[in-house]
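Notes from the 1:1 (GR / supervisor)

We went over the backlog. Supervisor wanted to see one worked example end to end before approving the batch request, so GR pasted a single chain during the call. The sequence is below; no edits were made to it. Supervisor asked that the structure be written out right there so they could see what the output format looks like.
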Amino acid sequence: MALTPVTNQTPAFTAATSAAAGAILGLFVGTAQGSGLMGLILGAALFGVMGFVFSSMLLEQQKPIRWLTIAAFAVAGFLMGGLPALVLGALFGWFAGWFIFWIATSSYRKHLVPYLTPGQVLWHYGFRVICGAIFVFLITPILVVMPLSFNAENFFTFTPEMLRFDPAGYSLRHYRDFLTNPDWQQALWNSLRIAPMATLLSVSFGTLAAIGLSQPHVPFRRAIMAVLISPMIVPLIISAAGMYFFYSRIGLQGTYVGVVLAHAALGIPFVIITVTATLVGFDNSLTRAAANMGAGPVTTFFRVQMPLILPGVISGGLFAFITSFDEVVVVLFVGSAGQKTLPWQMFTGLREQISPTILAVATILVGISICLLTTVELLRRRSERLRGMSPS
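Structure output shown during the call:
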C-alpha cells in the first residue's frame, strides 16, 4: 500500500493556524512565568515550526509523532518545573499533536456542511474559542480557590509542597476549623435560619405575582412587572441603603424579621421571572375546564396549575435560596451582630483576620451552588418535556 502524505492543507496554512494556537497557549504560560510577550512569541514559533514539519509527514506516522510530541513536552515540563509541569507539558503535547494533525488533515471540516466559505468556517470555530475563553476566565478563580482550601499552612498561596504534590502540603485543617469554630458555626446557623424563610416568602409572593401578571386583563402589567423585578436592576448598595432607612423607621432594622424580608425582596424577582417563563406555554383552557367541572379557584390552582408550573416554581425558589444564602451587602446594612451570616463572616474574615478557613467555606458554597444549579437544569428539562418542547 502506498504511503500518502498526511496533509490536505498547505504547510503554510497549517503552520499559520498552529502558530496562532501556540501564541494563545504561550501567552498563558508566559504570563504565569512573568513574561507574557516572550511566551506568546515562543509559543507561536514552536507551534508554527511543528505545524510546518508535521504537515509534510506521512499519514502512517501520525500516531507515533503524536506520542513523541507528548513525551517531548512532558520531559521539557519536568525539567522546567518538576512533576506538576510534567503533567501540564503532557497535556500541551497532546493538544499540539492533535490540533496540528486536525488542521493538516482538514478534519475540522468533517462535521460541517461542504458549502461553507473559509470565513464562515473561521467564524464557526472562532465563536466557540471566544466562548471557551470567556468560560475559562470565569471559572479559573473557582478552580484556584478549591485546591488552596486544602493547604496545610495558613497561606493563601500554593506552597512548594503543594506544587510538588507532596501529601504533607495538603490537609483538612481549615475544614475542621470551620466545623469546630463557634463563630463560623453561628454564622452558618444564621444563614440556615434566614435563607429558607426568605425563600418561602419569595416563592409565595413571587408565584402569586407571576400568575396575576400573566392574566391579560390586568392593567399596567408591564409597569408592575418592572417595579417587582427592580431589585435585580437597581445597584445592590442603593437597595441596601434604602432598606436600612426604611426598616430603621419601622423598627425592623437589626432584627431577624428585617433580614428575612430584605432577602425575600431580593429573591422575588427570580421567582417571578422563572414562573412567568413557565406560564408562557401554559394552556389556560385547563383552568377553564376545571372551573366547568365545579372546581374552585384554590382547587384549580393546586390540582391543575401548580403541578404544571412546579418546575418553574422550584427553580425560582432555588435561585432565591442561593441569593439569600450568598448575600452580604444587604445584611451588612439591615442586620446586626446577632444576624451575622456566613458571607458576612467571610467578609469580616477578609478584613480583620486573613484565615484560609474562608477558602474552605468558599469551596463548600461552590459545591452547594453546583448541586442547586444542577437541580435547576434538571427541572428545566422536565418542564420542557411537560410542555412538549422536548421529546425526551
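Supervisor's comment: Residues 149-179 form one domain.
Batch request approved.
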